[in-house]
Amino acid sequence: MFSLTRGNQAALGKMSDRVQASLAGVRVVKCFALEDVEMASFESVNRDYLDKSLALARLRARWAR
């Protein structure tokens, strides 16, 4: 359970970093029309976080029985 929690926190940190970097460079992204690239990158990081969060929730549900 500890490793899943740690993985979940790491994934949340990566997603937060991605959002922060995107917001900081929003003018550059718009200038070079890289919105699709940024969206794909965020979707990948977000999916990783979702998968890890669901795995942790499933484990916690099994322990709660």
Overview of the structural elements:
- By secondary structure, this protein is an all-alpha fold.
- It has one domain.
- Helix content is 91%, strand content 0%.
- The protein has three helices and no strands.
- Helix 1 packs antiparallel against helix 3.
- The relative contact order is 0.19.
Taking Cα atoms only, what radius of gyration do you get, to the nearest Å?
15 Å
Largest sheet: none
Helix content: over 70%
State the low-pLDDT regions, or none: none
Instruction: Name the beta content range.
Output: under 5%
How would you sum up the global shape? elongated
Quick structural overview:
With 65 residues, this protein is mainly α.
Per-chain topology:
Blueprint: H1 2-24, H2 26-31, H3 35-64
What descriptors fit this protein?
65 residues, mainly alpha, 91% helix
